[in-house]
């Protein structure tokens, strides 16, 4: 390996390390903190196993009663829990939209690459 290549490798390693510390590390730490707080609030507010058991019993007895069960659960929930569920729904929707856009751009770029490859022949 030449000196130029070694120097380039060291510089790139430092650039990646700086990027990781400035971009990825705060995002990972923030995500971990958010998930920890959300799980703690969820565990404090309701007992998930009991809710799931009730949902399974309603779904197994009459599948058409599930929307009524969900509506009844939402009507009897605390406002802070409803707010948390709303935030989770909006965040989930944003993630799904971002994922679909990424898939669409990947598909478009792969289609463009395929066309470019075919025109070269």
Overview of this protein structure:
The protein is mainly α. It is about 90% helix and about 0% strand. The two termini are about 35 Å apart. The protein has a domain at about 80-120.
Q: Which term fits the overall shape? A: elongated
> How many beta-strand segments?
0
Return residue spans where pLDDT drops below 50 for at least 5 consecutive residues.
none
What percent of residues adopt helix (DSSP H or I)? over 70%
The largest sheet is: none
Secondary-structure element string: HHHH
Task: Furnish the topology, listing elements before pairings.
Blueprint: H1 3-45, H2 48-61, H3 66-75, H4 79-120
Quick structural gist:
The radius of gyration is 24 Å and the shape is elongated.
Which features characterize this protein?
mainly alpha, 121 residues, membrane, transmembrane, elongated, single chain, transmembrane helix, 4 helices, 90% helix
């Amino acid at each position: 390996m030449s000196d130029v290549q070694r120097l380039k490798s060291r510089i790139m390693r430092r650039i990646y390390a700086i990027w990781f510390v400035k971009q990825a590390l705060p995002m990972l730490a923030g995500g971990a903190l958010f998930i920890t707080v959300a799980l703690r609030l969820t565990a404090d507010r309701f007992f998930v196993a009991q809710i799931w058991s009730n949902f399974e019993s309603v779904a197994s007895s009459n599948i058409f009663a599930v929307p009524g069960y969900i509506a009844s659960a939402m009507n009897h929930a605390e406002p802070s829990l409803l707010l948390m569920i709303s935030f989770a729904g909006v965040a989930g929707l944003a993630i799904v939209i971002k994922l679909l856009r990424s898939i669409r751009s990947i598909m478009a770029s792969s289609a463009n690459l395929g066309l470019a490859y075919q025109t070269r022949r």
